[in-house]
Amino acid sequence: MDQTLHVLNNLTKRHVDTSLLVVGKGDIQKFQSLARKMGISNRILFLGHRIHVEKYYSVSDILVLPTLFDPFPNTCLEAMSNGLPVITTKHTGISEIIDDGKDSFIIPSADNILQITDIITNLYKNRPLLDEISNSARLKAEKYDWESVTNKYIDIYHKIADSQVLAGR
């Protein structure tokens, strides 16, 4: 989270008009203190843990998740399905389905603050590009809705069952 605060600080220095909405568990006081020290606390809204996060996607443009490791963060897929490009690291499972620079962005590590800042700056200064990547993110996520994934699993199970029958088991 502190990386994201540093990104917001950089964006502020670049005069990129943006703010940060933080939803989730964690030590909010620690990050509020850091934001105050950086002079950016007026640009951040800490909401804490929320049950229904869907409504927050509609007031957002980009999801930034510079995580050290996450097998497959549903948050990223949810954001993409709502048309939000995701900026995350290569250390997440979602990076396996992202077409870097086309529907979202993959950075090498969570502490690559300048690269995240550059991506966001470029998207905000080039609104047609943000719109194009947002649309691509939404289309990518549609391939991974529950019905599609369930059907893929059923197909796999049928192939396994068929191969077992053919093998005489």
Count of individual beta strands: 5
Order of helices and strands: HEHEHEHEEHHH
Largest sheet: 3 strands, parallel
Question: How many individual domains?
Answer: 1
Within CATH, the superfamily carries the name Glycogen Phosphorylase B
The CATH class turns out to be Alpha Beta
Judging by the overall fold, what is the CATH architecture? 3-Layer(aba) Sandwich
Q: Give the proportion of residues in helices.
A: 40-55%
Q: Which range does the strand content fall in?
A: 5-15%
> Widest sheet: strand order?
3-4-5
Write down the Rg: 19 Å
Structural class: mainly alpha
Low-confidence region ranges: none
Q: What is the CATH topology assignment?
A: Rossmann fold
Search tags:
169 residues, Rossmann fold, three-stranded parallel β-sheet, 7 helices, 11% strand, elongated
Short précis:
This protein is mostly helical and about 170 residues long. It contains seven helices and five strands.
